[in-house]
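Subgroup meeting minutes
Present: P.N., E.W., G.H.
Scribe: E.W.

1. P.N. recapped why we're keeping a running log of single-chain structure predictions: easier to compare across weeks, and new members can see raw inputs and outputs side by side.
2. G.H. added today's entry (191 aa).
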Amino acid sequence: MTKYILHGGFTSIENKLNRTFYAECTNGSENNATVLCVYFAREEEDIPRLFKEDQQKILETTRAASLNVILAIEGGFMEQLKLADVIYIRGGDTEKLLKVLRQFPRFADGLKNKVVVGSSAGAYILAECYHSATRGGVYKGLGILPIRVICHYQSEIYPSIDDPIVAINNGCERSSELVVLKDFEWKVIVV
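Output recorded in log:
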């Protein structure tokens, strides 16, 4: 079984929902499990700070005695994916993230029987389609999960330029589940 944890965005902000989110990322992980942090949606200069921040939050909230938290690199990504127990895909520029991940046609296979965490853009890429608060409109994800996703729903930080519910209902097949996440909210899906 693969456990997916989808987060509505803004994992950096300290609050109870984000603490429980980080704890859930490694809930049930064995000692010495490997957490792979994927920042392909971010600018290169931001990655060291984000990795340090996420590494600290993951280690502070885990029940495992020890974890290996590593940074994903494009050059060895598929090998890293094989070795990882938890894959954490941080948000940012969804199109940038999709462009990188589409270079790896076996990416979805590498997620099987693992914990896969996606925050904002990380959740979007897993879905069949998603609504973008910042750009408006509906876009196609990788379709790894048979869902439609709205993140940053009713966000004060990223107010939508259109009605996300109307847009996603009109722009995407309605037969798949609709997952609506406000900032900081998260949901677990097991398949």
